[in-house]
Amino acid sequence: MSRRAWIDASAGVAGDMLLAALLDAGAHIGAVQSAIDVVVPESVRVSTTEVTRAGLRACKAHVDAHAESPPHRTWASIRTLLAGADLPTAVRERATAVFARLAEAEARVHGVTAGDVHFHEVGALDAIADVVGVCAALHDLDVTSVSCGPVAVGSGHVRGAHGRLPVPVPAVAELARGWQVSAGGPGELATPTGMALIRALAPVCEDLPPMTLDTVGVGAGGRDRPDRANVVRVLISVAPLTGVGMAADAGTEQAVLLECNVDDLDPRLWPGVLTGLMERGAADAWLAPIVMKKGRPAHTLNVLCAPDRADRLRDHMFEHTSTLGIRASPRRKTVLDRLFVTVQVRDRSIPVKVGHRHGVIVQAMPEFDDVAELARGLGLPERVVLQEALSAAAAAGYAPGGKLALG
């Protein structure tokens, strides 16, 4: 079972606010505390109280350190802590991704490599607890897909480890690149930890997507502002029903679709653009011909990818095309289980990709590059060799509709 979460950060975001919202949405505080304990044992205690912010009920998370926090930690030391902790894989990977985002942002801000970054405020025990706690809460709630709306970052100045800084502070500004932001009011409304959580966990910025709403969690900030409710909200969908629509075991995966319209790129460049996107981890990349304003012929570049690869592929699209904007939307795809087998065609081994579901073969298709190479070597039409490969696959028991025999 899996669920989807949408984060409302229109009043700002901090690590403890997002943690409180997830606890308010039903995450078990025991699961959160256990995850934190395996990373920094007997160092931090998490508790909650109910408060009001601008007249609205909200949950306030209290992260109390019981051990002295070191003055700073390096990205390498935090990565080692997470790697050695007995955490669920999803929690470890998400927490590592968040701190990696922070390291990259701090490295760019200070002009050093990510490995040389020394965290100050974000390296303290409470920040580690916020990051690990949020990731553990998402796991406890069975949330596998996250998106977020525009973020209020604040305005003015704040005092940090490096003295007086403008708001948004440099690390937040760096983390916010490519995201929709607004000032939202005076003061620091988005912290580096909060912004890193958004950017690492939510692949797209979007308004509330269609969902069947299950629960709403409201997390409070530290101050009660008279002009607005200082809260983060998390809206979580119901879990999908097995046996209805897409079953939980039907190979469903979360994905992101990146799209842009281009009418002024030399058409000779498109093959290289598509190849580069596939080499960088796109699940698929394709062009669709369109007609734009004033009757201009153009193309829509479509890139389908896993959520954690969206940023890298978006950067590649900006760098290698002439687009000025890229749309992103969450997708859900159902994939067949796959395996490769080999068949013999005229004494040559040809790989065949077999797609199957519930033990029944759905697709069996020879790899075309190998078919084409053999056809060139034999001086035969590609269609002849392709048909021979399909016949060989069927004779070996790999025809659509047949039962799959494994081992």
Give the secondary structure arrangement, pairings included.
Elements: E1 3-8, H1 15-24, H2 29-39, E2 44-53, E3 56-65, E4 73-74, H3 75-84, H4 89-110, E5 118-119, H5 125-140, E6 143-148, E7 151-152, E8 154-155, E9 157-160, E10 163-166, H6 170-175, E11 181-182, E12 187-188, H7 192-201, E13 213-220, E14 231-237, E15 252-262, H8 270-279, E16 284-291, E17 297-305, H9 310-320, E18 327-334, E19 337-345, E20 348-357, E21 360-366, H10 368-378, H11 382-395
Parallel strand pairs: 1-6, 7-11
Antiparallel strand pairs: 1-14, 2-3, 4-5, 8-12, 9-10, 13-14, 15-17, 15-18, 16-17, 19-20, 20-21
Helix pairs in contact: 1-5, 1-7, 2-5, 3-4, 4-5, 4-7, 10-11
On the 0-100 scale, what is the average pLDDT?
87
Low-confidence stretches: 241-250
Number of strands: 21
What proportion of the residues is helical, as a percent range? 25-40%
Main sheet, how many strands, which sense, barrel? 4 strands, mixed
Q: Biggest sheet, strands in spatial order?
A: 6-1-14-13
Structural class: alpha+beta
Rg for CA atoms: 25 Å
Shape: globular
Tally of individual helices:
11
Number of domains: 3
Report the portion of residues in β strands: 25-35%
What distance lies between the first and last C-alpha atoms, to the nearest angstrom? Answer: 30 Å
